[in-house]
Specification:
Distance between the termini: 35 Å
Helix content: 25-40%
Bound molecules: FE2/S2 (inorganic) cluster
Number of helices: 4
Order of helices and strands: EEHEHEEHH
Radius of gyration: 13 Å
Strand content: 15-25%
Strand order of the largest sheet: 2-1-5-3-4
Length: about 110
């Protein structure tokens, strides 16, 4: 089973194939934002995939459209709620935008982080 590692907070989790990066983040308490609850209506789950990018599920048009609204989009950007893991390990860097959204959604975590 693939291991997802969130490089900027050192958290990792082994997950079943088909789980999204956002679901993996929730499994290990990594700070990936999800203002719309994973319904492809924001861009707060924007992450950079540093390893295993090509192994992820293909990007659909809707994800591409929403990703256009994100900050600092890179060739290895994905929306955490849409990108699903397959058989390979994946390294993910949480974008500043996504971490800020997470902290806005979880005020208690924001206090701990300050
Ligand atoms: S959580 Fe809103 S698009 Fe992913």
């Amino acid at each position: 089973m693939p291991k997802i590692r969130f490089t900027n907070d050192g958290k990792e989790v082994v997950v079943a194939e088909g789980l999204s990066i956002l679901e993996a983040a929730r499994e290990c308490d990594a700070q990936v934002g999800s203002a719309c609850g994973g319904n492809l209506a924001c861009s707060t789950c924007h992450v950079w995939v540093k390893k295993g990018f090509d192994s992820l599920s293909d990007m659909e048009d809707g994800e591409d459209d929403i990703l256009d609204k994100a900050f600092d989009v890179r060739p290895y950007s994905r929306l955490g709620c849409q990108a699903r893991v397959a058989g390979e390990d994946v390294d993910v860097e949480i974008t500043r935008e996504s971490r800020q959204a997470f902290l806005d959604e979880h005020p208690a975590e924001r206090v701990k982080a300050s």
